[in-house]
Structures are given as structure tokens and as C-alpha cells.
Amino acid sequence: MDPVSARRHAAARGFTLLEVLVAVVILAVLAGLVTPMLGDGRARAVSDAGERFVALLNQAREESVLSGRWWRLDIDPAAGVYRFAERIDGAFAPVTLEPLAGDHALAGIAVQDLAVNGEAGAGAEGIVLLPSGEQDALRVAFVAGPFRQAVVLPPFGAARLDDAP
After folding, report:
1. Where do the H-state alpha helices sit in the chain?
2. Could you tell me whether strands 71-76 and 160-162 are parallel, antiparallel, or unpaired per DSSP bridges?
3. Domain boundaries, the chain
């Protein structure tokens, strides 16, 4: 058999074991890099919901102090939304200031363990933010599957994320 036909015969047989092993190793390394980036989207959604809630709540606190008006946070766990209201002329009205205006939906995320001023299962309305910087104490958890993010608002001071169960 001449050398040219020997090469054609070898090429027709397929890949060598070494070539296959190199390809498998490359694919394994790529899969190892990509898999953590994909993760479970629910964990990120819960974390984002908690961070956004804290940011908006702290902004509402600041607006209450700066405007000299009472503000209120209403949480509706059944609907999965929260909203802010501002006291104008003795009555609470929906806030029109962006990004605080309107309903803030928690799509696919449940509201659990809502406690206002230490009372578990408290009503969905009426977390009051006073212009003096005082407010009703709040503890709430956002949950999706096994993922949970708690938020705490003390009677004085800023809202914060809480990693405690």
C-alpha cells in the first residue's frame, strides 16, 4: 500500500482516542464556566426585589423628611405589589414622584412574614414614614421557591437587607 492510500484509509477510520479526549476536556471546561453563570433565575429575582424595595423605601424616607410630610408604604401580599402614598391636605394620595409612583409588582415573588411594629401578620397598609425620620418598624421577606430575602426597617434609620432566616 502506498503512503497516499494509507493516509486516505486512516482518515476514513475516524478520530483517534487522543483527539476525542481533548474535545471532551474542552467541552467539560466550557460547561464548567457557563453553568454557574446560568444558575437559577429565581435567586437573582429575589435578591433584586429586596434590593429595589430597600432602595425605594429609603428614598421614600428621605422624601418624607425633605418635604416635611407624612408618607405611607402599603404592601398587598395577596396581589404581590407595594405602593407609596403621601399625606396632602390631611389625606393620603398616591405618590406621583418617579421612581416611587405607581404599583411596584413583585412578579413571581411571594411576600411572607410581614410584621409591622412587631405584630406578625399585620395589615397590608399603613407603614408610616414621619418627617422627623421616625417610622413604623417593618420586617418582610420576599420568597421564590427555596430563595428568600428579608428586609428590615427599624423605628429609626434606614431600611436594610437582612440575611437572617
Report:
1. 3-13, 17-38, 41-67
2. unpaired
3. 3-38, 41-162
| pLDDT tens series, the chain, 165 aa | 566 665 565 556 788 888 888 889 898 888 777 766 555 678 888 889 999 999 999 999 999 999 999 999 999 888 889 999 999 999 999 999 999 999 999 888 989 888 888 888 655 567 899 999 999 999 999 998 888 999 999 999 999 998 755
The CATH number of 41-162 is: 3.55.40.10
Q: Which of 142, 153, 164, 151 is nearest to 44 (CA)?
A: 142
- CA max distance for the chain: 102
CA 15 to chain CA mean position, Å: 48
Cell 402614598, residue located: 85
Residue 138, strand partner residues: 116, 153
| H-run or E-run covering 72 | strand 71-76
pTM reported for the whole predicted model:
0.74
Residue 127 grid coordinates: 407603614
